[in-house]
Amino acid sequence: MTLNLVRFLNIILAGIMAGAVFVIWIGYNPQGYSSETYIEQQQAAITALNTLMPLLGMLTLVLTIISAVQQKRDRPVLITLFIAAGFMIASGLTTRFGNQPINAIVMTWDKAAAPADWTALRDQWWSFHIVRTITTFCGFALVVWSALRG
Description:
- By secondary structure, this protein is mostly helical.
- The protein has one domain (3-149).
- It has helices at 3-27, 35-49, 52-70, 75-106, 118-149.
- α1 packs antiparallel against α5 and α3 runs antiparallel to α4 (75-106).
- It starts with a helix and ends with a helix.
C-alpha cells in the first residue's frame, strides 16, 4: 500500500470512529430516559454496533501502526502516530473492560421490569463512554495532524 492510501484510509476510519462515539455522546445522553426507553435504546444500539465498532477500531489501530512504520524516518510523525495508537488502545480497553460488561448485563434486562440498580449501571456505562469519546477523539486528532504534518 502506498503511504497516501494508508493515510487516507486511516483518516477515514479514525473519523468514522470519532464521529460515532461523538454522536452517541451528544445525541444519546441517557440521563433523562425512563428505564424502558433506556433499555430499548441500549439493546438496539448494542445489537447494531457490538460487532461493527470493535472491527472498525481494530482496523483503525492497524492502519495507524502501519502508517507510523511507513513514516519511521519522520520522527515527530512516528511518535505522534504511536501516541494516537495508544489513545486508540485506551479507547478499546475502556470499551472491552468497561462498556461491554455492562452491555452484556443490559442485554439480559426486560424493559418492562428494570432492575432496581439500573441507573447505577447506566451512569457507570456513561462514564466509560465519556472516557472512550475523549480517547477516540484524541487519537483521531493526532492521525489528522500527522497526515497534515507529514
